[in-house]
Amino acid sequence: MAIFIDETTRLVVQGITGRDGSFHTEQMLEYGTRVVAGVTPGKGGSTFDAAGSSVPVFDTMDRAVADTGANTSVIYVPPAFATDAIMEAADAGIAFIVAITEGIPIQDMTRAYAYVRDSGVRLLGPNCPGLLSPGKSKVGIMPGHIAAEGGVGVVSRSGTLTYEVVWHLTQAGIGQSTCVGIGGDPIVGTSFIDCLEAFEADPLTDAVVMIGEIGGTDEQRAAEFVSERMDKPVVGFIAGQTAPPGRRMGHAGAIISGSAGTAAEKIAAFEEHGVGVARRPAEVADLIREEL
Amino acid sequence: MNLHEYQARDLLRAHGVPVPPGEVARTAEEAGAAARAIGGPVVVKAQVHTGGRGKAGGVKLASTPEEAADRAGAILGMDIKGLKVERVLVAEAADIDTEAYVGVIVDRDSKRAVFMVSRRGGVDIEEVAATDPDAIRKLAVDPRYGLLPHQAYWLAVSLYDDAGQQRACAEILRQLWNAFRDAGASLAEINPLITTPEGDVVAIDAKFTIDDNELFRRPGIEALRDTASEPPSETRARDANLTYIKLDGDIGAVVNGAGLAMATMDLIKHYGGEPANFLDIGGSSNPQKVVDALGIITGDANVKVILFNIFGGITRCDDVANGIIEATRRIDIHVPLVIRLTGTNEEEGVAILEGAGLSAATSMDDVVQRAVAVARAEGA
């Protein structure tokens, strides 16, 4: 097992013919992900051919799901159209939507979030790298070669910082069950707690790495969840200890507002609730080794 | 992107919110003329993107146009928290009976826009929230319906006892919501919302933060950007589609990815150095971005060494290496480069660098320690 995606994942790519969509579809096919359909309005009836596969392209999500039985979607469409793509996927009966798109207006997201929640659908992202269950499936943009099969769950708000930590784990001989990037925006569909809950229930996962950053209180609440509801050990890292207040550090959600959302308060919450805190990214692998 | 007070007032007025007459001025003469046009006592206020203007001496009353010009002359050019005052707002000085706070902000926890109102206006709402949370009434707006009339009224009755003022405030809250929505804001507040001795409800000061992700479809709002209020290097970075934030240290950093860029700054500090900037070249494999990034960092005279920390996932190490070589040809780089490349096409990237007499490490800890040592040696 793993969380959210595995061998049974049947993926439809929204925006499959675009620059990012086509590049990453090829990468996902090469990794072994079952990409069963693509959607680009106006390109229905064509195929996307890469990595020895031929993926049918549809005009609408409704047709893609009806014809292929897709159960998961990944979105690479531009910000102006991305929230409509999310809601179209929910309408088509997709159970798990992964939104990679960066730069979605936050007021648009308040509407899309309400929509998917009412539909009972899980949304990961937006502005996220997606997720990877090593050896089983990868959805999004994470590079597959840095990961290895194993028992550590990884959840993070970041992209390349996650790769850095996963790479250290792999080099240390510690494999991963699933690596999840929840996204760097202020409003995201899946929280740290959602992932921790899934990892706690996943038989393949023995321990969890949680990589947070400045902005908001999601890490603080996740730390409370760890001490109150989890038996599996959790190790953490927080980026942004040197970030100046009031400035957005690349991610739309990475901002210290007034005096709230600092790295120091998140680290303190981790320590208070028994989450081991790595001081450097490389230290995460050392702390995990002690827990296993 | 933050709007100046005078821009926020214009936006509110366009949506029907009562705002006292006022004009923006760039010189003492313009300020005097504005005061004459308004007539009567005015307040002259520095237009800079920071709080605490009053304490810094950037807000002054004037009873005559001559006095307004004098006050403006003193405020213009003043330095407030590192920001030079280029403009002042000259506004009618209102008689204040009561001061309230009304605002709407996108709330991360409820994932909705949330209104906050309080009778305790004229002070920082964060402080009220921390010390006297019961003094704030909150309401989360359902994005499908917007702020409904009865919700606006429910908020308003918590601020005023007078029926007329309650109705006027409810109307202002609806107008504030419309301005927030139409401008693509992530925060809009009126502080203070005052009552006058005559009983009118009037917006005195306002703050709007526009969601940067909205600007592509709102050219009218983008045009309000005050590039004079930010370092030229940050303007240049935005034009090149890079996220760059200037800091005070001497170790320049070029990193792919925001989280890794923050972690790199933290690691510089961990090993005793000081980061000169945050810079994310993003996930794309475009050598031009590397050239632009180096151009911006070499413009910072404090920088003694430039650190590259590239984890190639989607970004290809050979593209970054080509960008570095290209930049060294096109820009006069007079400080040492310390480079870490790992991940996708790492061997090709390292070979390209070595062909040009540069070297690369594969460990983040090693390369940061080396950069800190170089900065110390250069500073000695």
Question: Can you tell me about this structure?
Answer:
The complex is a heterodimer of chains A (292) and B (380). By secondary structure, chain A is an alpha/beta fold. Chain A folds into 2 domains: 11-124, 3-Layer(aba) Sandwich (Rossmann fold), CATH 3.40.50.720; 143-291, Rossmann fold. Helix content of chain A is 35%, strand content 23%. Chain A has helices spanning 19-31, 61-68, 79-91, 106-119, 160-171, 192-201, 218-229, 263-272, 283-291, and strands at residues 11-14, 35-39, 47-50, 53-58, 72-75, 96-99, 122-124, 130-133, 137-140, 149-156, 176-181, 207-213, 234-239, 276-277. Chain A has a 7-stranded mixed beta sheet with strand order 3-4-2-1-5-6-7, sandwiched between helices. In chain A, strands 9-8-11-10-12-13-14 form a 7-stranded mixed beta sheet, with helices on both faces. In chain A, α4 links the parallel β6 (96-99) and β7 (122-124). In chain A, α3 packs parallel to α4, α6 (192-201) runs parallel beside α7 (218-229) and α7 runs parallel beside α8. The longest helix of chain A is centred in the middle third of the chain and has 14 residues, at 106-119. The radius of gyration of chain A is 18 Å and the shape is globular. Chain B has 380 residues and is α+β, with helices and mostly antiparallel strands. Chain B has 3 domains: 21-92, ATP-grasp fold, A domain (Dna Ligase, domain 1), CATH 3.30.1490.20; 98-222, ATP-grasp fold, B domain (D-amino Acid Aminotransferase, Chain A, domain 1); 231-379, Succinyl-CoA synthetase domains (Rossmann fold), CATH 3.40.50. In chain B, 38% of the residues lie in helices and 25% in strands. Chain B has helices at 5-14, 28-38, 65-75, 125-131, 149-157, 163-183, 219-222, 232-239, 258-270, 287-298, 317-330, 346-355, 364-379, and strands at residues 22-25, 42-46, 59-62, 79-80, 83-84, 88-92, 98-107, 112-118, 136-141, 185-195, 201-203, 206-210, 243-246, 251-255, 277-280, 305-312, 337-343, 360-361. In chain B, the strands form 5 sheets. In chain B, strands 7, 8, 9, 10, 11 and 12 form a 6-stranded antiparallel beta sheet that branches. A 4-stranded antiparallel beta sheet of chain B has the order 1-6-2-3, covered by helices on one side. In chain B, strands 14-16-17-18 form a 4-stranded parallel beta sheet, sandwiched between helices. In chain B, β16, α11 and β17 form a beta-alpha-beta unit. The model of chain B has no long low-confidence stretch (mean pLDDT 94). Classes of the chains: A alpha/beta (292), B alpha+beta (380). Chains A and B meet through α4 and α5 of A and α9 of B.
